[in-house]
Amino acid sequence: MKTIWILAEARNGRILPVAEELAGAARQLASTVEAVGWGGAEAVDFATLGTYDVSRVFRVGDLGDSLVGPRVAAAVGEMLESHPKPDAILVGATYDGRDVAARLSAKIDVPVLTNVIDLNEIDDALVSTHAVFGGTVNATARFTGSGPGIFVVRPKSFERGDTGGAAAEVVDIVAADPGPSDGARVVSRHVLTQDGPSLDSAEVVVAGGRGLGSKENYRLIEELAHLVHGAPGASRAIVDAGWVPYSHQVGQTGKTVKPEVYLAFGISGATQHLVGMKDAKHIIAVDRDPSAPIFRVADLGVVGDLAQVLPKLIEALRARGSHESTN
Amino acid sequence: MNVAVCVKQIPSAETPLAFDPTSKTLVRTGPLVLDESDSFSVEMALRLVEQSGGGDVTLISVVPDGETQGLRTALAMGAARAVLVSDPLLSGLDALGTAKVLAAMVRRLDADLVLAGTESSDGYTGTVPVQMAELLNYPAVSFVRHVEISGDHLVTERQTEEGFEEVTCPLPAVVSVTAGVVEVRYPSFKGIMAAKSKPVEVLTVADLGLEADSLGIAGARQEVIALEQAELRPSGEIITDSGDAFETIVERLVSWNIISEHQ
Ligand SMILES: Cc1cc2nc3c(=O)[nH]c(=O)nc-3n(C[C@H](O)[C@H](O)[C@H](O)COP(=O)(O)OP(=O)(O)OC[C@H]3O[C@@H](n4cnc5c(N)ncnc54)[C@H](O)[C@@H]3O)c2cc1C
Ligand SMILES: Cc1cc2nc3c(=O)[nH]c(=O)nc-3n(C[C@H](O)[C@H](O)[C@H](O)COP(=O)(O)OP(=O)(O)OC[C@H]3O[C@@H](n4cnc5c(N)ncnc54)[C@H](O)[C@@H]3O)c2cc1C
Known about the structure:
The structure holds two protein chains of two kinds. Chain A is an alpha/beta fold.
């Protein structure tokens, strides 16, 4: 039976959903799931990963002002020498996750398989499915060399599936100083706060693109989002243009969202955008170009000028006094 | 300050992406162009060199087939020279193999800083820059949106999921630059003419003292088993707005229980 290690990233004292999703995936494929986490003992309660059937968590400790990549990769590298090797290591496709995967890959001389959206066992080998070409093509791949294979998994690819398992054992590990590769120092951390639900978890996402025409018009997106208790999102074009902060970006380089409803206004639907939202339960798109690729994924497509549709929609919702939800 | 910039040359956006059905690697026919993702780091490198008051920019690129068109674009922007590793052996190379070749190229240069894009437009593993940093035993700052030089180190802003962090970094270092964070200059006519005579050194894998076996050539360490068209969502209803499309949107939001039915 297989053993899989997962990277358990936490932020602000909370284990990230993607780490729990990795546990959910690993549990289907392995008899033993263990995790590697970091952060001080008081900061994060890693034992709770037991509810996702993680039996043991190796805790690297507080990283201070180090970046995550070098320290955590060094620790995992050392553990691979002193423990029975797992069959695979699953890492979430977050910024820090990618750094850890990349450093670990070079350190142990094993390639990475990235943009993974599914994992299955075929003939005793782990086979990964990848969203390539912006999610239009699914490729399946596997490692052929000696492992453990490193899989970098896109958030929201797996169910977390709480099993109510017993608390995981937490083991502190001490890793050697990685040396010059750990030279960078985090001087300060800045959180751009925003009212309302977060883009990652909102039931409704209202996103705007270049078709808005100006930064000022993004206020309409925010207003509509507010009216439907949703989060405002954006295409990269308007993030690049400086209209909205990067944390609003949906897509390949931005966030992956899976809301009940995704509303896109003036977003053409480039493959790199679609990969971040095409798994929404329902999609509504408004674009004046009938051939915009966004219409290929929309449940309801409105060909029209958003400068007409958006204000009327806001007006209608305001009139309904719909600033209260159904249930 | 001397800056090396990793630039990937990829099929232009007009060439539809396609896979070779037997090798299952990307088909690279037609001319390759500078990956737009890398134009931002070229721009940033030129600015850093200008600010530091000396030094220059060297481009480094890995291709199987000797292509230099993408390099010429970046040379026209103002880079001083380019080094290209071109070898048919490199066809189907994975990200770690690419990082190994790039790291070997950096070792031959006298660069204070190595810039790269955060992810390429075609393969987008987003791992090459940090794999390269690890092979060089350099610090790395990834997903950077702003860089300044302050004495003997860099002051950077690194994007995070919820904002950004300020990170300082000693040199030499690898920095991966997020797309869109600087306005990229257009090559001037003079720049385009000058680029034609700028040096492009072409090396093979053997010139770098690397063994093909250690690079993980196509299928040696990971393989693509199959390619399938992703399942498409069933097509929906498309309407043309004639002034009342907003009502249809409201109806849908009601039917999906996003807003309540009553007025
Ligand atoms: C490596 C890489 C990563 C990327 N990552 C991302 C990512 O994470 N997220 C992302 O979004 N993009 C990403 N991109 C960029 C992507 O390729 C597109 O360039 C981008 O999504 C386009 O944004 P847009 O749809 O807002 O703009 P456009 O493509 O310019 O579309 C604007 C749309 O607005 C419509 N329009 C104009 N005026 C009106 C009007 N008055 N009323 C109604 N409609 C109107 C137009 O018809 C058009 O369809 C990435 C690209 C690369 C190379
Ligand atoms: C659809 C697709 C999926 C793939 N999936 C995987 C995978 O899961 N794992 C894997 O190991 N390989 C994968 N590959 C192969 C991988 O894309 C190539 O090995 C590529 O040479 C390097 O990876 P990248 O383009 O993903 O680089 P990224 O890490 O996304 O690129 C970041 C930066 O590194 C620099 N860089 C990257 N390549 C070069 C180059 N050739 N020359 C100069 N600078 C460069 C550039 O600055 C670039 O902006 C895939 C390829 C394709 C087409």
